[in-house]
Write a structure and sequence with these properties.
Blueprint (H helix, E strand, L loop, with lengths): L1 H5 L8 H4 L6 H11 L6 H4 L20 H7 L1 H13 L9 H11 L5 H27 L6 H8 L2
Bound molecules: zinc ion.
Zinc ion (ZN) binds next to loops.
Amino acid sequence: MYQCLLGEHVKVPWRSVMCNNRATPKSLFITWLSLWNRLPTRDGLVTWKDITTDCCPLCTNEKESAAHLLFECDYSAAVWNDILHSLRFSRRSAPFDKELIWVLKATKRTGDRHKLLLMYFAECIYSIWLQRNEMVFNQKCRSRPSDILLDINL
Ligand SMILES: [Zn+2]
């Protein structure tokens, strides 16, 4: 009966990104939304909300979508590149799907650097989302890409 009440559990391949991640709860929630492709970006909002533009508020060059925001946008790619560099990973930012696969592989390794990678991955997504919201609602640039790493301040 108990198992019936619980229902079926779908094992998602990215669960290790969420489990044992020491990022803040807010960061984990936004990361969870992005993993389910549920961030309310302008490309989805334009169909049912009265918004005037679907332009990315961070770079103003492309249509805003979850895929663009993480990490095809020059701004967010710069933030993620700074984090990768600070953790001494010799790679450049790629689109979210590729970064997720790489992070999942990396989390199978042990060590503090890989735990930090997992945490910074979630904090990076949250920081980009905060910056995006600051631009949308207050038209203010909260931080330059290079300052986001300092803002995260774990
Ligand atoms: Zn952009």
